[in-house]
Structure formats: C-alpha cells, structure tokens
Task: inverse folding
C-alpha cells in the first residue's frame, strides 16, 4: 500500500499476521435517539484471510450493512477497531482513511449507486479520478474492464438506460478500477432476478478464484451463501455462528 502511514508501526496490528486482509476487533456501533439507544452491532470480532470469500447473512435489521460499512471504513464504530491489511483504519484521520479505502477496497451495493448524469465509462473511471490516475491510463483501464464484463457497446450509455444486471456489472467494473485487494458487496444480487443474480455472483466467484480477491458479501440468498468459503451469521447485532462451507 502506498499510504503515507505505511511505515508507522504504531498503527499496525500487533497480531503478527500477514495473511489477514481484514480484522474486526470488538466492534460496537450504536446511535442515540429520542426513543433511546439503537444498537447497530455489538462486540463483533472476526478475521478474513487474504483471498477468502466470506458471506454475511442474517435477518433484516440485524446489523449486516452497519458491519460492512465499518469494514470498509465508510462508517466509524462507536468503539473497536478495523484492520485493513494490518492497518488500524480508524486510528487515522478521515483523509488518510479515505486514501486507503480508495486504493484497497472496492464497493458494490444492492442499488448499484451509479451516477446517472455521467455515462458508464465515466462512472467506472470515477475511483481512479479520486486516486489520481492520469486520464489516458484510466480511460484505457475502464474500457478494458467494461469489455471484460461484456459492456463494450454501453460505454457512452447513461446508467438508467441499462438493465439491472448491466448496471451491477458497471458497478463491479467501478469497484475494480483501482485494482483493490478487497471487495465488499452489500446484497449485490438483491435487486436482480435469479438468473442475473447468479451471473453477478459468478463474476464475484471468478474474482475470488482466478484473481484471488478477498470478498465479503452480505446476502439474503442461502444458496449463494453456501457457495462462499464461510458464512458469518448475524443476529441482533451479534455473531450468532460461523459456518465453513465445504465444497464452495
Ligand atoms: N444511521 C442510523 N441511525 C440510526 N439507526 C441506524 C442507522 N443505520 C442503521 N440503523 C439501525 O441499525 C440496525 C441495523 O441496521 P442495518 O442496516 O445494519 O441492518 P441490515 O442487517 O443490513 O438489514 P437489511 O437486511 O434490511 O439490509 C437497524 O435497527 C437499523 O434501524
Ligand atoms: Mg442491509
């Protein structure tokens, strides 16, 4: 990682474990509201090995998105730590954390989160604009990714003119733009029909198997979860159990 803080040992995990891509340690998230304290997640700890494909499952409101957002440093925990490739991400200021997030993590969301006033190509280029990649390089890379994902004829289209599956493939291309080691996906197949959802999941499997990405995917689909290496079951903001999925 080319972070200005790479050599600062004080923010490195004291777990001497180079094989971990992500670690959550005693994570808690709550909000104060007029009705009282709202619990997001409570005392969550687990690690994800480099190259592992983990699913997070559990009922609606159990804290899955809250957890994923903290793993990706989109949201600060009330207490606890997240280590991304050994770096304690919340010990950094927001701009340092954003730099690491931009380089190390690709996000995929249920509702795609594409920018409709920009065309497909520009949407995919966006993380590289933030990352400072020069224009010709990012244009070439975005075009390559979109070709790879079967969207060659859609470069100039507006996202809203694409099907759901196409929009999610654009979002996958965008998540890969800065070549992140880690991909976090929050119900990436949630808005798609079964066949299109299976195709999108197949792409994530390809990224896992062939390109050795570390993936954490929230899903309500038990079949897809069973096809990941490990499922973490969340209930009422806590880890209920973890299941290793043999033959995934
Ligand atoms: N910004 C917020 N302010 C207050 N409460 C919140 C906030 N975000 C989430 N919550 C609450 O935290 C709990 C967990 O929400 P979360 O979105 O993580 O659930 P989820 O497991 O992702 O659910 P779903 O499967 O429906 O997406 C819920 O009770 C939710 O209302
Ligand atoms: Mg959610």
Result:
């Amino acid at each position: 990682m080319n972070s200005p803080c790479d050599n600062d040992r004080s923010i490195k995990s004291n777990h001497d474990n180079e094989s971990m891509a992500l670690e959550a340690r005693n994570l808690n998230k709550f909000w104060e509201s007029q009705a009282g304290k709202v619990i997001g997640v409570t005392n969550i700890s687990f690690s994800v090995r480099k190259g592992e494909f983990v699913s997070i499952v559990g009922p609606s409101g159990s804290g899955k998105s809250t957890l994923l957002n903290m793993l990706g440093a989109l949201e600060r925990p009330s207490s606890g730590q997240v280590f991304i490739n050994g770096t304690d991400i919340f010990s950094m200021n927001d701009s340092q954390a954003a730099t690491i997030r931009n380089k190390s993590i690709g996000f995929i969301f249920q509702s795609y989160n594409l920018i409709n006033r920009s065309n497909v190509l520009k949407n995919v280029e966006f993380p590289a604009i933030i990352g400072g990649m020069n224009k010709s390089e990012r244009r070439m890379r975005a075009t390559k990714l979109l070709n790879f994902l079967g969207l060659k004829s859609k470069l100039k289209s507006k996202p809203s003119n694409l099907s759901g599956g196409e929009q999610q493939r654009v979002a996958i291309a965008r998540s890969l733009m800065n070549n992140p080691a880690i991909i976090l996906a929050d119900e990436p197949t949630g808005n798609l029909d079964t066949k299109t959802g299976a195709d999108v999941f197949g792409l994530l499997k390809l990224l896992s198997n062939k390109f050795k990405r570390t993936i954490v995917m929230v899903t309500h689909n038990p079949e897809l979860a069973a096809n990941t290496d490990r499922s973490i079951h969340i209930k009422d903001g806590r880890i209920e159990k973890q299941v290793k999925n043999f033959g995934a």
